[in-house]
Amino acid sequence: MFDWITGLLQGGGAWAIAALMLLENVFPPIPSELIMPLAGFNAAQGGTPLWLAVLAGGAGSTAGAWLWYALGRAYGAQRLHQLVARRGRWLTMTPSELTRAQGWFARHGGAAVFFGRFLPTIRTLISVPAGLARMPMARFLVYTAAGSFIWSGGLALAGWLLQARYHDVSDWLNPASTAVVVAIVAVYLWRVIRWRPEA
């Protein structure tokens, strides 16, 4: 995957960065922890300028998040409650837990959207409850863009500064991001097994 992404970034420039970051938010297996440091590394080698790489990465990430937000907004909270009532085990949630979660998101939605941009898998999923809660689109985009540009910029800058040592850092980043995803899957399976319907 490393060589494939490198080839795309070198051949497609800013458009490839934006497309990969959009895809990372729609279909998470291509991690931003690999895309953006590589974009920064390529910038240091004379490829797409760093500022343009950050702009493309943040824009692509924001666009991908908006797609999930739009999906959640179109689906609606009422239909979600009906789905939870029928398929609660596989969603690992009961109707009362969903109501509490909606209350929590109503109180902390902005912070959840912003800080969620820094976490693997969560940065994809956090857009759905924002849409379900019908968070105003402008507010959602502000929090999402702020988190996305900070995250993209930090990763790209790391790749640019490290240059020749980028491979050493990628050897650490890849397992760390994989470990977070594995932990999320493990928690999900544990909740499926432990789930009990409400009396």
TrEMBL record:
Residues covered by the VTT domain: 30-160
Principal location listed in the UniProt entry: membrane
What keywords were assigned to this record? Answer: Cell membrane, Membrane, Transmembrane, Transmembrane helix
What Pfam families does the database record attribute to this sequence?
VTT_dom (PF09335)
Q: Does the keyword Transmembrane apply?
A: yes
TM spans (from-to): 12-30, 50-71, 140-160, 172-190
* Cellular location(s): Cell membrane
Membrane topology field: Multi-pass membrane protein
Q: Which PANTHER family does UniProt cross-reference here?
A: ALKALINE PHOSPHATASE LIKE PROTEIN, UNDECAPRENYL PHOSPHATE TRANSPORTER A
Its protein name is DedA family protein
Q: What is the lineage of its organism?
A: Bacteria, Pseudomonadati, Pseudomonadota, Alphaproteobacteria, Rhodobacterales
